[in-house]
């Protein structure tokens, strides 16, 4: 697979230049630092926006139904426009697309803050603007994911993806906490105004980053084809390219079972284990802590990590027995080491596959592939939460956690046997 990817790139003009040959440290790469900081701020803005808006809806209307309208709006937009946005990311300059979306989100979120500050504003206006924010954000994700190879080259992809994974986990936790504090201390309008500022700073950092140094090959025919043809070509590429097809199937499955099962572990901690707040807080921290430890290890091993495909599927297989073991635990404290290990394995099953995707997939197609992956992975967790929560109410969380672990073990074994494009990737 890697040889095929290299061969396809050798036939394309302007191949990706390799930063490793220049001996430049990732953390001395000004462009990467600016884009990495921009991504972190943009993600902080997303988490801030989510918690601040949801709390404001609950505080002002007291309606969980209205809050769910906001969540469903984000979900539907991500699902419908992921592939569309990925195609756009492959047709235009990705850095330009990113900073434009950040500036647009700054304007939209600032407008939301103003409307929230004003009295008696119809809720439909908030939903409309929130939908526009979500729609704009859908374009940024594939543009960022696909541009990473243009920012650092192939040789430092492991370091870059690992750093992004660590930042992702830290910011999601701190962003929700800070958003809640800001709403409680200053009110929803002020908190959302802070959110708008993060998007503005993110866009300015992208302008400061300058042109991406490692120009990836572009599809020379793309300017001669229509948008519809390019969109169709993206689906055709994923269907015909074995690794892309396998990754698009595997990643949503991992997200579906992992996030849904962890939600049931939280339910079990409260209903069955009757965990104290301190233990519950430790349990909440175990998954991101395990993920960060795993990402750091992947960064340290880098090229020493061989048989990466087997690590991807093997970590998925191992999570199954761990979930089954957790279902038999009688106390939350005893389950903490197992939960930490699950977070560790989750990093191997996701971080590595995001690294390999950037190596195996043609750079000119990465926007469309990441757009489709983003659409499917955004839908899988909410669907899983709905299914698992319903089953948990009927049979209890322990039974469903064990069943989920068994299903994950079985599907991991099937993936090892059938998804050879991933299993055999070195």
Name some characteristics of this structure.
disordered N terminus; mainly alpha; 82% helix; 426 residues
3D structure, described in words:
The chain is 82% helix and 0% strand. The protein has helices spanning 2-10, 30-61, 64-91, 94-117, 123-152, 157-186, 188-209, 227-240, 242-271, 277-301, 308-327, 332-360, 366-395, 397-418, 420-423. Helix 3 (64-91) runs parallel beside helix 5, helix 6 (157-186) runs antiparallel to helix 10 and helix 11 (308-327) runs antiparallel to helix 12. The protein starts with a helix and ends with a helix.
Topology diagram in text:
Elements: H1 2-10, H2 30-61, H3 64-91, H4 94-117, H5 123-152, H6 157-186, H7 188-209, H8 227-240, H9 242-271, H10 277-301, H11 308-327, H12 332-360, H13 366-395, H14 397-418, H15 420-423
Determine the strand fraction and express it as a percent band: under 5%
- Provide the helix percentage: over 70%
Which ranges are low-confidence, i.e. pLDDT below 50, for 5 or more consecutive residues? 1-22
What's the count of strands? 0
Order of helices and strands: HHHHHHHHHHHHHHH
Q: What distance lies between the first and last C-alpha atoms, to the nearest angstrom?
A: 9 Å
Précis, in short:
This protein has 15 helices and no strands.
